[in-house]
Amino acid sequence: MPRPDGAETTPTELTELEGLLAAYTVSNFDPPADHVAEVVERLCELNAQGWLLDNIRRGAGRWTVSDDDRIDVIVSYAARRRRAPHGNVERDVEQLRAVGLTDFDVADLNNIVAYYC
Predict the structure, then answer these.
(1) Among 19, 55, 78, 86, which is disulfide-ready with 25 (CB 3.0 to 4.6 Å)?
(2) CB pairs under 8 A, 24+ apart, for 51-56?
(3) Which residue, among 70, 75, 62, has the nearest Cα to 21 in the 3D structure?
């Protein structure tokens, strides 16, 4: 997955699937971004479930999209950053930390969201 310069040098535990789901989330707003097909192709290669992609496209940030808390929080965070970039970031970061993301993971996630917006 293409990431902004320098993002791959941070010691992050964010998986490629998690990063791509965040990219997919921010790429699916109206109108969908040009690169959404590329992101979907890579998600399919990683065996991302079709129901999960459908849930993200329909409800990211509005309701639970996954039965995995970590993925759900990451997707919700990406959707909120896309809709309201200056929203309650502190609360969002606390939620990301609660599901195991470190500060480096959050920085990596922010880079991905900004890159794909």
Answers:
(1) 78
(2) 52/21, 53/24, 56/21, 56/24, 56/25, 56/28
(3) 75
Residue 113 has pLDDT above 70, yes or no: yes
pLDDT, residue 30, reads 67
Q: How many helices and strands, by DSSP H and E, does the chain display?
A: 6, 0
Question: What domains can be seen in the chain, in order of their start residue?
Answer: 14-116 (1.20.1290.10)
The pLDDT of 65-94, averaged and rounded, is: 89
The answer for residues whose C-beta is within 8 angstroms of residue 64's C-beta and 6 or more apart is: 72
What token pair was written down for 17?
A: 């699937």
What is the spatial distance between Cα 92 and Cα 82, in angstroms, rounded to a whole number?
13
- The predicted-structure confidence for 19-71, as pLDDT tens digits, reads as follows 999 999 998 876 676 788 899 999 999 999 999 999 998 887 677 788 899 99
